[in-house]
Every structure is written in structure tokens, then in C-alpha cells.
Amino acid sequence: MAVSAGYSQASRPASAFHGCVAKIGPSVLDCDSSMLATEAGRALRAGADYLHLDVMDGNFVPAISFGPKVIANLRLHHPKVFFDCHLMVQKPEEQVEAFAEAKAVHPDTGKNLMQFIFHIEATEPRGLTQTIIDLVRKHGMLVGLALSPATPIEQLEPYLHQVDVVLILTVVPGKGGQSFMVDMMEKVRYVRSRYPDKEIEVDGGVKVHTVDEAAKAGANMIVSGTGVYKVDDMALAIATMKRSVELYGNGLSEEKVSPLRYDKDIFG
Ligand SMILES: O=C(CO)[C@@H](O)[C@H](O)COP(=O)(O)O
């Protein structure tokens, strides 16, 4: 079981448990990006449920990471993997078509494997949030809205019912390896209490010693970069985080949670 460092350990009331699937998505931002496909495969074999792909344009955030071409190439290596694309870019509307190149559908389940998440801070001041939600859907991708720490959760209210996922940033976006902002859990609780079935993702500073806070607040999609790629035992870190969501979010008993270690067939 994961241990929280210094945060409230208040247990979650049974009525607050949710049925959303616990999923762990390593952020590849801090992996050896010269071997992106291999590094992605390493995390998937270690138990990752999806890949979180951080796209940075040097404008919305100072850093530049990679873009849609790299993601389309990555798709050739991982045709059955869910790509959760987090666009930290100033003009997401200009990227929709290019990202659709990496679209895929799982051949067995029919599940859409491509999610396009953009920041409301980039679009709301220009009155484009709804337009981009519609554009992403038109291009056949799942759509999500991301929220930076300084932005109040109420800004998402008009869109919450429409999006597939809400991404709550638990650090200031821009780089990996920062400290988890536990006060962002209020936003997670806000969304979970109103939308029991919504995918809620947390991103930034999530590690084995902070994940319990996110799990207790109701997040079911856990992004972790350095907490996965910069630890000795990647599989143990992923399993520990997943078990935290199953225990504190889904309310499963210790006997029913996922095993601490297994080899996953990433092509299955
Ligand atoms: O979007 C971002 C940062 O902007 C994240 O996805 C980070 O890359 C996560 O890294 P850690 O905080 O888990 O190290």
C-alpha cells in the first residue's frame, strides 16, 4: 500500500467510492527520448495502462518537447496503446488535424485509443473552448480539458459534462520533477462529487508517496513521470499507484486489488 507523506490520512466514506477504472499513465517527458518507443514499451511492460504524452510549444510553457509527427511515429510501434496527449500549447486548434494522424481503434475492443487534451487557459480568453471541443470530436478523438493550478475549477463548469476527461494539474505545467500540490485535491473532489463516472486525471508530482491523496480525492487516471522513469523499480511504482486508486477510490479490499507485480503483454 502506498504511504502518504505528511498529508491527511482521513479515510474516504464508502458512499464516495467510484467505479472508474484505475489507470496509470507514465509521462514520457523524462525518459530517454532518443529511444522513445523503447522507453514507452518499458513502461507498458511494467504495467502501465496508457501513455501520457506531454506536448510543449515553447510558448504556452517555456519548454519544447515533441509534436504530432513524433506521436504518429510512436503509434507505429504501439498500435494498441491508449495515447493521452496533453497539449501545453497556445493554439491547440492548429494541432487537431495533425494529431488525428495518430488515431487508432483497438481491434478487439473497438476502443478509441487517441485522446486530445488542451488547456482552457489557452482557449477561454479567445472564446474558443467549445469550438475546439467540437473540432476534436469531429476528428474522431476523445477530448479533455486541462486546468493549471491557478485556474479555478468553476471555469470548467460549462464543459464538464461534455469532455471525456478532466486533467487537474498538480504542478505548474512546464517540466517534470516538481512537488505535488495537495491543495489541488479540492478541485478533484469538486468534479468527482458532481460527476461520479467522469475520468479524472491528476498530473504533476504524483509518486508512490503522494498518490494516496489523489486516490482519496477521487482521481482515477494517474500520470507520473519521474515517479515511474526515475525510480529503481518501475513495475513496483506503477502497481503501488494503481492499488492506491483501487483501495481508496474504488473501495476494493486488500485481497481484491491488482497484484504488486506482473508481466503485461503489451501487444495483447
Ligand atoms: O505535464 C507535466 C508537466 O508539465 C507532467 O506530465 C510531468 O511531466 C509529470 O512529471 P512528474 O511531475 O510526475 O515528474
UniProtKB/TrEMBL annotation:
GO terms for molecular function: D-ribulose-phosphate 3-epimerase activity; metal ion binding. The keyword Isomerase applies. It catalyses: D-ribulose 5-phosphate = D-xylulose 5-phosphate. One of its GO terms (biological process) is purine nucleotide metabolic process. Keywords: Carbohydrate metabolism, Iron, Isomerase, Manganese, Metal-binding, Zinc. It is an enzyme of class 5 (isomerase). The keyword Phosphoprotein does not apply. It holds the Pfam family Ribul_P_3_epim. Its cofactor is Zn(2+); Mn(2+); Fe(2+). Its EC number is 5.1.3.1. PANTHER family: RIBULOSE-5-PHOSPHATE-3-EPIMERASE. Belongs to the ribulose-phosphate 3-epimerase family. Catalyzes the reversible epimerization of D-ribulose 5-phosphate to D-xylulose 5-phosphate. Homodimer. This is ribulose-phosphate 3-epimerase. It comes from Symbiodinium necroappetens. The gene is Rpe.
